[in-house]
Amino acid sequence: MLFRPKFGATIRSERAAFRVDLLAERLVHPWGLDFLPDGRMIVTERPGRMRIVTARGELSHAIAGVPAVVAKGQGGLLDVALHPRFVENRLVFWTFSEAGPGGASTALARGRLSEDGGRLADVTILFSQKPKIGGTYHFGSRIAFDGAGHLFAGLGERFNDRTRGQAQDPGSHLGKVIRLNEDGSVPADNPYVGRAGALPEVWSIGHRNIQAMAFEPGTGALWEVEHGPMGGDELNLVRPGVNYGWPVVSYGLNYDGTKVGSGKATGPGFEPPVWQWTPVIAPSGMAFYEGGAFPAWRGNLFIGGLATTCVVRLEMEDGKVVHEERLLRELGLRIREVAVGPDGALYLLTDEDNGHLLRVSAA
């Protein structure tokens, strides 16, 4: 029997009244979402399917042409993002867990969506995280375009105790933000280009498990959220060549209760988070709100909470968080993705066997 929370009632929060409607269900652990020009949505499901969902919630068959994924643990088909000029080129980008010698790692692919939306052609793997290692945790991963010809992807450090220290090594892709040109080549002005022993795609280091990335309207600043261990989920302002500390410093503890690295929350040479959550919220998916449906929310940052089954609303001023509110805890659903639609509504994906696509609109 499917779990069916109550939808449609008016919910009053601190700054707005809204309603939540079930747009689609029976999605299997949906992960990423983006909007097609005609208002339909392209959605990924972690087992390896990509589908199109209409504004009325009708689900297409799985889109053909998606490469095989390692659908184990936290691995599978992850984020999806349309090229900023999709109308012209119909290019779709996505991240996924890719098998290879030594285990698996996060990869970034690109394909061209057919006019009928049924197939991806000219599929190319633009990037594969190095090294590939065993295990099924901490693949990341989100994609963000800067509008200037570059794309960014956030990569997990793969959780393994033996290799998580590579998050500090620019010669490894574990625990990094990477920056590429849209064709997969490396921009000449990346911070580690030409540095001995470093990988040129690396943009920033010292991350744990990045689950969301978004550019802030107006400022062009890149923000990311990542999972901490037992405590210490982080919201970070991402800058080139900066070290965010994992696994040397953390606001959290290891799962066995021992201290992480130095045992300190931060230290010299490490960029502290702008905001952190202890206990954790297990953040995933985020979006800055610039829509017209909720004027009181303009400029706010919305982040999904997996562990806390909520949406976190952050009020931002001059790069700082000045207030936090938690919404939709009453639904009891793990929020995996948050997006703002062309209609100004918030769209949410829930990470469940019976995953939901929800629409949050003005009451």
Protein model, in words:
With 363 residues, the protein is mostly beta strands. The radius of gyration is 19 Å and the shape is globular. The chain has one helix at residues 86-89, and strands at 10-12, 17-27, 30-35, 41-45, 49-53, 77-82, 91-100, 103-113, 120-128, 140-145, 150-155, 177-181, 202-204, 209-215, 222-227, 233-238, 275-277, 283-288, 301-305, 310-317, 320-327, 335-340, 346-350, 355-362. It has a domain at 30-283: Neuraminidase. The mean pLDDT is 96. A hairpin with a 2-residue loop joins strand 20 and strand 21. The two termini are 29 Å apart.
Q: Which descriptors would you attach to this protein?
A:
Neuraminidase, mainly beta, globular, 4-stranded antiparallel β-sheet, single chain
H/E series: EEEEEEHEEEEEEEEEEEEEEEEEE
SSE class: mainly beta
Q: What is the strand content?
A: 35-45%
Outline the biggest β-sheet. 5 strands, antiparallel
Low-confidence stretches: none
Q: What is the CATH top level name of one domain?
A: Mainly Beta
Number of DSSP-assigned strands: 24
Computed Rg: 19 Å
Strand order across the largest sheet: 1-2-24-23-22
Topology:
Elements lengths: L9 E3 L4 E11 L2 E6 L5 E5 L3 E5 L23 E6 L3 H4 L1 E10 L2 E11 L6 E9 L11 E6 L4 E6 L21 E5 L20 E3 L4 E7 L6 E6 L5 E6 L36 E3 L5 E6 L12 E5 L4 E8 L2 E8 L7 E6 L5 E5 L4 E8 L1
Antiparallel strand pairs: 1-2, 2-24, 3-4, 4-5, 6-7, 7-8, 8-9, 10-11, 11-12, 12-13, 14-15, 15-16, 16-17, 18-19, 19-20, 20-21, 22-23, 23-24
